[in-house]
Each structure stands twice: as structure tokens, then as C-alpha cells.
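Section 3.1: Structural characterization of target chains.
Under the original work plan, the team committed to producing a structural model for every single-chain target entering the pipeline before any wet-lab resources were allocated. The record below documents one such target. The sequence was received from the expression subgroup and is listed exactly as submitted; it comprises 398 residues.
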Amino acid sequence: MAIAGTPASIDAREAMERLNAEAQALHIWLRTQANAPTQRPWFRETGLDASGRTARGRVGAAQLKPLAHRWRWVEIAPYLERIARIASSAEVSPIEFAERQQFLLTNPGLGGRLQVTSTMRCAVSIYNPGDVAPVHIHTPNASRTILSQKGGYTTIDGERCEAARGDLILTPNGTWHDHGNDGVEPVVWIDVLDFPLLEFLDCVWLDEAFAGERQGNARAQQVSRPSDYSRKLYGRGGLVPRFVPHQRGFGRDTTPMFHYRGVDIRDSLDGLCRHKGDPYEGIALKLVNPATGASLFPTLDYGAQLLRPGEATGLKRETASTLYVAIEGEGVTEIAGQDFDWRENDIFVVPGFAWRRHRNRGDTNAVLYTVSDAPLLEKIGQYRAQGRMPDDSVAELV
């Protein structure tokens, strides 16, 4: 219906854009473009090129896509040493004004945001001997992948977890926790959180008002449970005690077992080496909530995979994004047609929808740890996976 006084031949888009010049002061936008999602119908495209493009125009202006990327340990590790030196010589350490001594990884496709995928944040932390990070609690789920031979400790819900290389220590949302190093050498670990997801939902908060005494340079929990508390309760697969509650902290559907030991993970992988394995993953393990069999967090899935010397996987793609940490060995991962070589402690990310395959190019077993947002995609009905067959056709895996 024409509006009185409005020329019939008016260019509606142009007129609305002129109005938008005025409306922007009111923080409103008169829509002049159709939706422009960054993701093409990925499942119809069988090529190996990149999986999506950033949309143009106002509708797509704020859309960012994570890119496949690798952070070489040999390039980033020196910055940890610099942080440690600064902390040792400063009157006020970074822990006291920044709560952490770390650097965060930023995906080059995400415009400087402090995240490696759309749902995950990743940092690398260093703690000098005697350091204690303040006890705190928060809504994001978090984990520590230990890179040092001796990895300091984390106290979670009164349980002190002393760490070693390859250990995975979890701090589910809603659990009080603090970290420290009571050894004689600096300790290093990788932090992974679902922070960007919670940030997008406006659900991030952190509390440090713990009723405890100061220990060293920060407040810390008193240890109230045996150091192997969760291991004794849940450390034998398939056997779950009935006489204790499996809820720890105020989080929901998170694992009550906080410490997964690297030696156990490696023993399990080694014990399966004679099996054929998965054509797309090699010898792969999923770390699960021992009380329910579900993923460790409702939003993140953790795993480990072993590739035997010379082993190469088939091409696979998922709607989920995956972060990889090279724990042992060396190899190369092809992502969207581009090769990313990796060796011990390197970190790399495979965005959702991108074809990827791994190859162990060393003469010893290679071990990769993984963190994926597949559980989140599953819960909203958007998880899919496809594999490339020998005849180059594409098969639905999930």
C-alpha cells in the first residue's frame, strides 16, 4: 500500500539507507539487506577448499569465521620465559593485577577476539615456584592440559590434584579452585574454556569471595579431601559408587572426576595399538563422565588419539570445531587442502565444516589430545560428520 506523499518510484533501499544515517544515533538499523550467513550449504560441496566465506554488508559485517591455524611451540614458548622473568623481578606480579601469568591464543579469522574457535578460548600459562593463583569460581567450564614434567597443582572443591605431563585437570563450572606451584621449576599448562559461548549468552561471571586464609601471594583453599578422592571413586571403568552424590559444585551435568592422568591415557592408547582403529581417527579415546558416560562438560568433549608410525587417516569433516595439542611425536594435518605440520607441544585448530586428515610422519607413535564443541552441537541438533570414501564419494558418518 502506497503511503500518501511518497513517490511511487522511490528507491526503497536508498531511502531507508538515508534514514539509517539519522537512526544510527539511536542505535537502530532499518533493515536493507537479506540475511547473509557465512556458511554455505557445506554438505553439498565436496571440494577440499576452505569451508566458508565471510558475508558482506551490514547483515554480515559482524560475522567472523575461525580459520585453520597452528601455533608453533618453538615460536610461542619464549614468551612464557619472558613472562616468568617479568614476574620474578616485579614488585607486583602479573598474578596480582591480571590473576594469571599467560598469553591467550587468537584465531586470525576472528578479528582479535580472545578465542580460537567460535566457542573456545585457549591460553598457555606459566607459574614460577611459589606462585599461587587466587581461589575463585566461575560459570565457564575449564581444563588444564599439563605440558611440564611436573605440573604444579590445582585444588578443586577441596581436592588437591598434583599434576604431571599429559594430565588433564578439569575445573567444571561452579567449583571453587586455585592453582599453584610448590616445586623448584616453573610449570606450564594449556587452559581451555568455553568462555566465548558463555560470553555470547551473557552468562559469564567470576567470584573470588572465598572464605579462606591467604597462602603465599593469594588466597587458596584448605585441602579437605584426599588427593586421590575422585580417582578412588571413579578410577575403575564401569564401577560407580552408589553411596556418594555425584554432584560437585553448582554446575550441572559436569564430571565429578577432576583429574585424568596422562600415564593412564597413554597406557590405554598403547593397549589398543594392535586394533585396527578408526579409519578417520586412528586409535582414539573419548574421556567421559564416569557417573553418566556423557561428555566431561555439556559444551566440550575431550579425547586422545594415537597414530602409529606412517599411519594416515581418511578425510573427515564435522560441524563441530576441534582444538588439538600434540603431546608426543610429529606429523602433519591437512585442513581444507592446506598442510599444517606439527611436533611436540604445538597447538592447532580445525574449524567446523573443514575437511581434515592426519598423518604420522615420524618413526614413533604420535599422540594428539583433542577438545571439541561436539556436545553443544549435538544438543541443538546440529552435529553432523562426513567421511571421504576411497572412490572420492562422501558418506554420512553421523
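The domain at 69-237+249-396 is CATH 2.60.120.10 (Jelly Rolls).
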